[in-house]
Each structure stands twice: as structure tokens, then as C-alpha cells.
């Protein structure tokens, strides 16, 4: 490998690490920021539906201007039938996932929520098998059981265990897993790929509409009665901007690296959040917590390793097939060359112009 090639490889690695660092920082910021706003001991604004609606309204507004006014991203050829059959269900699931996950921050610590999120691979794999998107594999299921056992141990050792909060977070994990599988079924299978701006352009308004129904029934009466129906534009503006930036960071990370890189980076982020929750927010993290999450962490690492090996095997298979095709083409070209060399084309008879 020459110096130029080595420099290009190092540059690619550094850029990938930069994308990972940006995503971890923004994801970390949004999670801690949401906890700060929703926790009754901090900013004390425990209205998760309202917070999620502010995010979706802000993202819809920015995405509209980027697509329709500045034309940074071209709108897709989205038919009404496709929008109603694919985008609307995904928007409904996304709104429910955000509502439940943000609500959990009112009742649970940041560290314990990250431990419960380790169940995401279990939920995604189980949902994929049930919807026949993935095939059942005993080794993978054993790995999923190991992750679940680790999370159960962490939950057993939680100092401030709240049943309602755990149900909210588990519900968020299940709904998010269904949403991810439905994206593959409803959009990816039809050859449609959405970048974050396009996703927010189509999905965020749907989320806003869906969230407005429970908001009108649950939170609006409370906000009106307590006279707290006022938005702090500095706090909520920065919070919404961070949420929007996180969506762009997800696009950069997955688009420039891979979804597997994002999964691995997510494990690093979870450990950082657990350390931050324990050292700064002063959440209590017990030894049983750490032991249980350690078991789940090992399971998630095995899961990511298995996915990496599967991707490598798939890529190797593609290269093998490509090589076989190239070899067949080469043999065919040689046969044609030999055929041209051995085949003589008879010349037409020459006309005799001499008189007889």
C-alpha cells in the first residue's frame, strides 16, 4: 500500500470516527436535555406529549423550508395511496414510540432507561420473525434470551424501580421495533429510501397530528388549569434544534458508515450515559445494575458481531458471484475469438470481364 492509499484509508477512518462522535454527542445531548425538561426535580415540565409535539412541529417547519423553499432535497413522487398505506402507519408508530419513551424519563433514571433499551435487538428480531421478515435461528434466539436475562437482572437491582415507568419504556421499545420492521416492509421493499429531511417532511406532520389527539384529551386540560401553557423559547428552541440535528447525524452516520456502526456506537453511548447519570445527575447505580447490564452488553456485542459476520459473508458471496460472471464472460469472449479465427468467410465469385 502506497503512501497515498494509506493516507486515504486513514482519512476515511478519521471521518467515520468523526461521524460517530457527532452522533454520540447529539444523542447524548437530546436524552439528557429531555430528562432535564421532563423530570419533576429539574425543569419540572412533565408533559411528554407536548414536548414531542414541539419537536415534531419544529422539524416539520424546518423540513418544509428545506424541501419546498430552499429545495435542498427534492420531494419524492409520493402518491396518496403510498402515503396512506406506508407513511401514515409509520408516523403513527413513531409518534407512539416517542410519546412512551419521553414519558419514561419522568419515572425512571437515565441509566436504567439505557439498560432497558438493550432489549431493542430482542424486540426487533422477535418482531421480524413474527412478521416473517427474518428467519428463526436457535443461536440468535439463545443470544436474545441472554440479553433479556441481563436486563432482568439489572431491573432486579434497580434502586428506584417504578413499574409504570418500566412498562412505558418497554412499550416504547416494542413499538419502535415494530416501526423499524414496518419501514423495511412498507418502504424498503418498494424501493423507497428516505433521508432524514425527507423523513421529517413526510412523517413529522403525521406525528404531530396523531399526537394532537391524546394531547387534547390528556395534557391540554392540565396545562390550561395550571396556567403553565407558555413555551420557554430558549429552552424548547434549543431542545428542538438538538432533536433536528440528531436526525441529520443519524443520516450521516448510517449513510457514510453503516447501521451496524450505529449499533456499536449506541453501546458506547449507553455506557457514557450510565456514567454521566451516576456521576453528574447523581442517580444511584447498584452493583447488580451493572452486573445485569454487563450480561446484556455481552449479548449485544455477540449480536453485533454475528451481524458483522453475516454482512461479510453476504459481501463475499456477491464478490464470488461477480467473479464467476466475469469468468464466464471471459470464456465466452475467448470462444468467440477462436470462432472468428477458424471460420473463413467465402468470397463472392469474381466476375470474368474478358471476352470469350
Quick rundown:
The chain crosses the membrane at residues 12-33, 45-70, 82-100, 106-128, 140-157, 163-187, 199-218, 233-253, 260-281, 287-306. This protein is mainly α and 356 residues long.
- Main structural class: mainly alpha
Uncertain parts: none
Task: Please report which band the strand proportion falls in: under 5%, 5-15%, 15-25%, 25-35%, 35-45% or over 45%.
Answer: under 5%
Largest sheet: none
- Indicate the percent of residues in helices: over 70%
> How many H/I helices?
11
The average pLDDT is 84
What is the N-to-C order of secondary-structure elements (H for helix, E for strand)? HHHHHHHHHHH
Query: How many runs of DSSP E, i.e. beta strands?
Result: 0
Distance between the termini: 78 Å
Shape annotation: globular
Radius of gyration: 28 Å
**How many structural units, i.e. domains?**
1
